[in-house]
Amino acid sequence: MELKEKMKSEITVQNETIPYRIIRSKRKTLSIEITLQGEALVRIPMGSKMEDVQRLVESKGSWIQKKRAEMLSKKQVEEKRYEDGITLYYLGDAIQLK
User: Strand 5-13 vs strand 16-25: parallel, antiparallel, or unpaired?
Assistant: First the structure.
């Protein structure tokens, strides 16, 4: 079972405040993940110093901002609607819904 401790913080990049969540667990490396909801997760080893975490997040601020924007734009992709009259492609064949 993995022990996890969660904390929240934020960083400001180009006048945009980006919240991120810190997750401490039994691991050896630090990582940053951006979810489809645009949330930044920073996974760190149990013994990591907060100064090291802050330095990592600040150094990757532009990357976090860029990836967060990408994920949020993916979220805005409109869901397909299956209505009468639209054409769908199935195994290379065009099928019109009735």
Answer: antiparallel
